[in-house]
Amino acid sequence: MEIANKIAIVTGAASGLGRATCVKLLTKGARVAAFDLKEPPGEAPGEVNRNYMFEAVDVADEANVAAAISKVVDAFGAVHAVVNCAGVVDAAKTISKGEPFPLATWNKVIGINLTGTFNLIRFGSLVMSRNEPEPASGERGVIVNTASGAAWQGQVGQAAYSASKAGVMGMTLPVARDLAGVGIRVVSIAPGMFNTAMASGLPQKVLDTIVERMILFPNRMGEPNEFAALAAHIIENSYLNATTISLDGGVRISTR
What are the pLDDT digits (tens) for 77-127? Predict the structure, then answer.
């Protein structure tokens, strides 16, 4: 699918992978609706009210998501792509200091990372299904999800995060099968360690250890623009479907 003149929704758009994806799609000529709980700092990365709009959205709230997507259709006329980047990494051990894993933490992580992703998938694909198919490919839309290497290499304290990302990866094929009949592709990206707000919360010693001992090559953290470039390629490459692509420099994450 050509990106120019298409309408894309990007969640988690205020920073990191989502912010970089907004910028990439705008530079390729898309109109972008940025969804996040808070508005990105500074000036919007595009022509406000023409190619770019922001909506405060809690992806775990189905009414909020449905209303926000309706606003996008009202403003831009359609939706052709959804890139799901919203996520949290709140950690806790299964048992710690004589207490079990806090269920509120579990519900928050699953609610945002997994249920939130599916909310965008189900409401976004419904709108996409009404698009006229592309003349060359027959496709009506593309959905790009963010899984994680933690889906199969989860560290200590990542039970909820790993489960949520494994869920994203696990639903990629069945959702792609569900939507194939209406010409909508579904692909997930599993990033490794990236220079984002999530990583910035880790001690420098931990980050140095990850780079030195766990990342194969190139021996550095990933950059958000590299994720954005892959998301854009997935949208453009009509033969990518029903798969999860690792983007991690060959990382092999240790227990801690």
Answer: 999 999 999 999 999 999 999 999 999 999 999 999 999 999 999 999 999
Strands 52-56, 81-83: parallel, antiparallel or unpaired by DSSP?
Answer: unpaired
For this structure, is 161 an active site residue? yes
Q: CA–CA separation, 127 vs 79, rounded Å?
A: 6
* The total number of structural domains that make up the chain: 1
256 in any annotated domain: no
Q: What is the CATH number of the domain that holds 43?
A: 3.40.50.720
Catalytic member of 161, 168, 169, 244: 161
Full domain range(s) for residue 233: 7-192+223-247
Strand 141-146's sheet: what is its strand order? 52-56, 31-36, 7-11, 81-83, 141-146, 184-191, 243-247
Is 151 contained in some domain? yes
What does the CA dihedral 167, 169, 170, 171 come to, rounded to 10 degrees?
Answer: 90
Residue 255 placed within a domain: no
State pTM to two decimals: 0.94
Quick count: other Cβ atoms within 10 Å of Cβ 37?
Answer: 12
